[in-house]
Specification:
103 residues; 4 helices; disordered N terminus
Length: 103
């Protein structure tokens, strides 16, 4: 690896932080868009069921990418947050079931 000057390395780190901040700000719009793209691809690509084996590795990758952003010190307060738990349970037992029955 070729060493770079400190100011150049700092710019790259800053760009990564800017991209991450931008994605964090837009994640509410990104998720439904990704779901729509996935649904369209699944319904339009013949024999898309052959890709079923890729689901678990893709989920594992997404979890791996997501959880490092969660500060472990805040998990306890999140579990005491009743609004958060209510939304989590509503999603897990109502919304996901509805989406699963439609698909």
């Amino acid at each position: 690896m070729i060493p770079r000057p400190a100011d150049e390395a700092g710019k790259e780190g800053s760009n990564v932080e800017q991209v991450r901040a931008s994605l964090d700000e837009r994640q509410v719009a990104i998720y439904p868009g990704a779901i729509a793209i996935g649904a369209a691809a699944g319904f339009s690509i013949p024999k898309a069921s052959a890709l079923e084996a890729a689901i678990n590795p893709a989920l594992a990758f997404m979890l791996f990418v997501t959880f490092p952003q969660v500060p472990l010190a805040d998990i306890g307060s999140a579990l005491r947050n009743t609004r958060f738990l209510g939304a989590l349970l509503a999603d897990a037992f109502q919304i996901d079931q509805l989406v699963g029955s439609v698909a």
